[in-house]
Amino acid sequence: MSQRRKFIKKSLLGSLVALPTLSHALPRIDFSRKKADGPLILSTWNHGLPANVAAIEKFKQTGSILDAVETGVKDTELDMDNLSVGLQGLPDREGITTLDASIMTGDGSCGSVAFVRQIKHPITLARAVMEKTPHVMLAGEGARQFAIAEGFPLEKEELSPKAQEAYDEWKKTSKYKPVINIENHDTIGMIGMDDKGKLAGSCTTSGLAYKMHGRVGDSPIIGAGLYVDDEAGAATATGLGESIIRICGSFLIVELMRQGRSPQEACEEAVRRLISKNRKNIADIQAGFLAINKDGEVGAFAVHPGFNFAKANLTSNELIDSKSHF
Ligand code: SD4
């Protein structure tokens, strides 16, 4: 063996001995902490109240926070009065309803679907992407093909009566000017913690009403509409997706919490950042963030007034008004 090869072998061995083993190198997560009294579930807007009930019920049955956040938002995906989530949601400019959804657990597992049609429960499809594929995100026709292969029924492609009425009205002018807090705001983002401190989150939407065909919002983008990390916390977003994607809103909040900010401080900083990167039309932009840290503390903040969220545990479920920057 040449001197050089001997040297490399020796120094590699030396560095191997010097390196700590992987289990020592990785930070340990203390799942024994019990800051939340039973599960804690948070979700955006007032439809979060019934969604939280469904989530808590599911948690009682299976003890899984992932099952809870999936089941909770499925309730909203079927809510015929909600025109921003599920197949009854308002369509794009072409009159087609397309859906975005994502799901994530605190160990880094995640899945999402974007620009998907005819699927009643995009959140369940996102979970299937997470659990049954080597990928994180499937979009459009590919997502639909995957759904068919997984046995998801394809729904008829027709607008709900309320969506049809609204679309017919919109077509009279075909103007695209979203009105904050009146249309375009009912996305559900849900984040939850189990009694041992494990986190999970979900987010599902039909996106902006009358968007361009093919437009994808923040909700299926891991780090924008949703981010979850057992070591720091979880966050979800609602509002104008473009403004949220620009600042990687949910990831930003989780990273700020990792650095020691409280969930409230982190949400406020994210809103400040969002405003600074969207100055031109901030009067027309609503966005709201919801966060929980690894100790079970909660925060929420929005650009404009009007954002609220629902917070539930085993014994209570309440609607709370978020503060806002303006
Ligand atoms: C989107 N963030 O597609 C979604 C819309 C939304 O509450 O949150 N509405 O941009």
From TrEMBL:
Q: Where is the signal peptide?
A: 1-25
Q: Where is this site: Cleavage?
A: D186, T187
Database matches in Pfam families: Asparaginase_2
Q: Which CDD domains match?
A: Glycosylasparaginase
- Source organism per UniProt: Algoriphagus kandeliae
Sorted keywords for this record are: Signal
Protein name per Swiss-Prot or TrEMBL: Glycosylasparaginase
Q: Where is the active site?
A: T187
GO molecular function ontology, one term from the record: hydrolase activity, acting on carbon-nitrogen (but not peptide) bonds, in linear amides
Q: Which InterPro entries match?
A: Ntn_hydrolases_N, Peptidase_T2
GO cellular component, alphabetical, reads: cytoplasm
Annotated binding of substrate, by residue: R215, V216, G217, D218, T238, G239, L240, G241
Q: Which Gene3D superfamilies match?
A: (Glycosyl)asparaginase
Q: Which domain of life does this protein belong to?
A: Bacteria
